[in-house]
Amino acid sequence: MKSLRAVLIVLVVIVAAAGGGYAYWQSQQSELPEFIASGNGRIEAEEIRVATKYAGRVEEVLVEEGDQVTRGQILARMDTAELMTSRARARAEVAAAEQGIAEAEAQIVQRESELSFAEQQLSRAEELVKNNNISQQEVDQRRADRDIAKAALTAAQARLTSSRLNVAASSAQLEGIEVQIDDSVLKAPRDGRVQYRLAEPGEVLSGGGPVITMIDLTDVYMNVFLPTRQAGLAFVGNDARIILDAAPSVVIPAKVSFVADDAQFTPREVETRAERDKLMFRVKVRIDQELLNEHLKRVKTGLPGEAYIMLADHNDWPNEFTPNVPDDATLRQTAQ
Q: Which of 75, 92, 108, 333 is least buried, going by the fewest C-beta atoms within 10 A?
């Protein structure tokens, strides 16, 4: 009996807390004009996983967590000792194939000379046989020599074609090894900040094994969820504002960059209008890139806050939503 009473008390407390939270949310919503929607979220940024393309051992990692990196900067290197050996062997095969081309070309010159001489001999023999100066058998022999020389030339030309194909195949193999060596140097695909070092020198990774995780500080946003009516009036490009819990006096300008086509979570049955109003759609509010570039060192993901979105074609923000992002000098003076 006592245990049942305790359970009932806990349920009453939970319901009361939920009701209080809902009432607080409603009171916050009622303070806003009808053409401004709001939702809670956290500052997020596009995350990039820099991974090795091929299996291998990590040779060195050149950055630390928190480092600012630029596009093309080397982040880590994989061990390439085996690839270097394969490249040397491939280069030798290319050189041998190219030598085969030179030999085939020289042989063609020789066979062409032999064919020319055989044709001249045959032509003379055909003139001499008309006056019975030589026998028909000798003419036939010279004709056979001409045919042999012609076949030898054809074989030499085929050998040249084969040698050129060998060079192409060897060169392609060498290029493939060069690509693997280049891919063993892991570079930053864009400007950003190193978030985590996921591998250390000496670790052996499989193909696609992540080494570095970085975030793109030029794509910082907050995801919020709006009910059906408000989501239907939130358009891509609409003005928005972000206020963080850590800095409630700072109003950050932003824009709506995405509105989901499908509800993110839905009641089990959607039959009445009241139920349809419970459908929630994800809306992405993105901070202006130029503003981010001015304050890259101050951008920090994970901070909770609230986003305010101008609905439909309205553009008359209340005074308290006037953007006021301070510069670094002002922040330093405030800190002092």
A: 333
Instruction: Mark whether 276 and 301 lie in a shared domain.
Output: yes
d(CA 235, CA 239): 9
CA proximity to 197, closest of 44, 60, 81: 60
pLDDT tens digits, one per residue of 235-293: 999 999 999 988 888 899 999 999 998 877 654 444 444 555 568 889 999 988 888 77
Do 303 and 167 belong together in one domain? no
280: nearest Cα among 239, 237, 229: 229
| 271 within domain boundaries | yes
Q: Is 194 left (phi over 0), alpha (psi -120 to 50) or beta?
A: beta
**Is the pTM above the cut of 0.85?**
no
Looking at the structure, tell me whether residues 71 and 199 fall in a common domain: yes
Tokens of 163: 């040698």
Question: Domain check: are 179 and 163 in the same one?
Answer: yes
pLDDT confidence of residue 320: 87
Q: What is the CATH number of the domain that holds 68?
A: 2.40.50.100
Host domain of residue 68: 50-79+185-205
Handedness of CA 322, 327, 333, 336 (dihedral sign): positive
Q: Are residues 191 and 239 in the same domain?
A: no
Strand pairing class (210-227; 239-244): unpaired
Number of domains in the chain: 3
Q: Which residues are CB-contacts of 331 (< 8 A; sequence separation ≥ 6)? A: 298
The CB-side HSE value for 97 (13 A sphere, CA atoms) comes to: 20
